[in-house]
Specification:
280 residues, 12 helices
């Protein structure tokens, strides 16, 4: 059962370890092994989070999440995204960046270190928005009710997470981006780079979060449905009270007296007759 479920995962891991030995020796094997253990341990946590997200999606968006989303997360963010960051920051082509990563590791490390402020700002804003939307969400099951209830009330304020994230980004870009660490122990002013990268991460999260099957859209709909005022049901009379009411006439009456006599003949027989009118 274990091999049937994780057979391909074991095979890819073994192939990666063997490739690390041929490429960089046993030192590279140790680095890849440590990264593999770290990635596997983090994947269990991601699986729990993804399960909570998937149950809020419909069948179409579940397939998109498990196919295109996994491809983007595994290959795009771990292989393509670092190469794109290095290529943009060093003004190189994609092929040149890949060749630099394979042939000149020291120079590639310097470029990645110099691009660290933009990478940290982009990824940090994305993760910060996930955290803020999580703590401000009104959940059915509450473990720390004394803390989660006030946070859920604050979460009803529209765009509160975005405002807090922008304040954090402004403080980080002003105080930390002005003295960003670079290769060789030097520092540089990366305020504009940190601010633009953080805005890009925020926009990316907003685009992903407003998709029809996303968990953020589902929680927003659930929150708006819970806060929508409900119409009060109309009160109905009891059967005993309803039976004592006189029946409504089906045809129109020419005078009030005739309508009353049709409703209750007993009352009409005991009531005095109207005085006859004299014609002149």
């Amino acid at each position: 059962m274990v091999l049937k479920t994780f057979g391909w995962s074991f095979a890819v891991t073994a192939a990666g370890l063997v490739a690390a030995v041929f490429y960089g020796g046993w030192a590279a094997f140790g680095v890849v092994a440590i990264l593999s253990v770290l990635e596997i341990s983090l994947s269990f946590d991601n699986a729990v989070v993804n399960a909570g997200i998937l149950k809020k999606m419909n069948a179409f968006w579940q397939k998109i999440f498990l196919t295109i989303g996994i491809l983007i997360a595994v290959f795009g963010m771990r292989l393509v995204f670092p190469v794109v960051i290095v290529a943009v920051s060093a003004q190189l082509g994609p092929i040149e960046a890949v060749d630099l990563a394979l042939t000149d590791k020291d120079r590639y490390q310097e470029l990645v270190t110099d691009a660290h402020p933009s990478i940290a700002a982009f990824g940090g804003m994305f993760l910060l928005m996930i955290f803020l939307d999580f703590i401000f969400e009104d959940r059915d099951i509450k473990w720390l009710g004394w803390l989660e209830r006030p946070l859920a009330k604050l979460g009803r304020i529209d765009m509160l997470s975005v405002c807090i994230a922008l304040i954090v980004l402004l403080i980080s870009a002003t105080f930390f981006g002005a003295h960003a660490h670079q290769h060789g122990g030097t520092h540089a002013d990366k305020t504009e780079t940190v601010f633009l990268s953080g805005i890009a991460g925020l926009i990316t999260y907003m685009i992903v979060g407003v998709s029809p099957g996303s968990s953020r859209t589902s929680s927003k709909r659930r929150r708006s449905a819970s806060t929508r005022p409900r119409s009060r049901p109309r009160a109905r009379a009891s059967p005993s009270r309803r039976s004592s009411w006189p029946a409504r006439p089906r045809s129109s009456c020419s005078s009030t007296w005739r309508c009353w006599t049709r409703r209750s003949p007993s009352t009409a027989s005991s009531a005095p007759s109207p005085s006859p009118t004299t014609s002149s």
